[in-house]
Amino acid sequence: MPGQRARKRKQAEDLRRSTERRAEREAAAGPWEVLHSTEDPAEHRAFVRRLYEAGVPDDVEVVCDVLCGRLVQPTWYQVRTRRPAGAAQGLDAAQGLDGVQGPDSAQGGQGGQG
Description:
Number of domains: 2
Number of helices: 4
Number of strands: 3
Low-confidence stretches: 101-114
Shape: extended
Radius of gyration: 19 Å
Order of helices and strands: HEHEEHH
Distance between the termini: 52 Å
Strand order of the largest sheet: 1-3-2
């Protein structure tokens, strides 16, 4: 087919560039920190809602994970953050999000474990 070689070459080049950009981002970023962890989906949604209402800086990556359980293990919900390696403060200190904690972390429960 006409143009297929050029299309494949362009796709391979795009993949190579995106892989390089991702590697650069990963090298420049700091470690992931678990901000919140719970088994309760409603509590997870409430925490994420409060987090967005408080605002998140542009240089902070926020990831919501669902660690699927099976018959013996429950499903866990986590919110993780990562700042660039050169950043001095974590998300809590930078944004004043100390009050944006789940109910279990204030009671010494499962918060932050996973």
